Amino acid sequence: MTKIERKNLDILVQEIFRQKPNYICVVSGYEAQSAHHIYGKKDAMRWYLPGMVPIRTKEHNIIHSSDKRSKEYIEKTKENISAELNKELIRRSFTPVKYLSYKVILKYLNGEAVDYI
């Protein structure tokens, strides 16, 4: 997958998240501006929608900094998901993906029934 294709998918994910009703930051409770990957962006988890939570830019920057509040905010993002989803995300985050197809992931993000990871 090319760098441009990855960037296009990242933009599409942000657009999908912004269209969700009640797009509220899981840390602050205010309107969110972006999505945070609960278990990172490596491999296919980068575009796996259940693995993301809405978050404000301010709190997102703190999570990705050395700020002392970072760990607290990370824990708040995980509190907002069920135990079953948490286990599933952990499992998927360690599942290696040999080949990521731009077309397959694009279909998934457009709502087609494709399980790419």
Topology (SSEs and partners):
Elements: H1 3-18, E1 34-37, E2 52-55, H2 57-63, H3 70-79, H4 83-93, H5 102-109
Antiparallel strand pairs: 1-2
Helix pairs in contact: 1-5
Describe the 3D structure.
The protein has one domain (3-109). The protein is mostly helical and 117 residues long. The longest helix is centred in the N-terminal third of the chain and has 16 residues, at 3-18. It is built from five helices and two strands. The two termini are 16 Å apart. It has a two-stranded antiparallel ribbon. Helix 1 (3-18) runs parallel beside helix 5.
In short:
With 117 residues, the chain is mainly α. Helices cover 44% and strands 7% of the residues. The chain has helices spanning 3-18, 57-63, 70-79, 83-93, 102-109, and strands at 34-37, 52-55.
Instruction: Name the helix and strand elements from N-terminus to C-terminus, one letter apiece.
Output: HEEHHHH
Taking the sheet with the most strands, its summary is: 2 strands, antiparallel
Distance between the termini: 16 Å
User: How many separate domains make up the residues?
Assistant: 1
Summary keywords:
2 strands; two-stranded antiparallel sheet; 117 residues; 44% helix; globular; mainly alpha
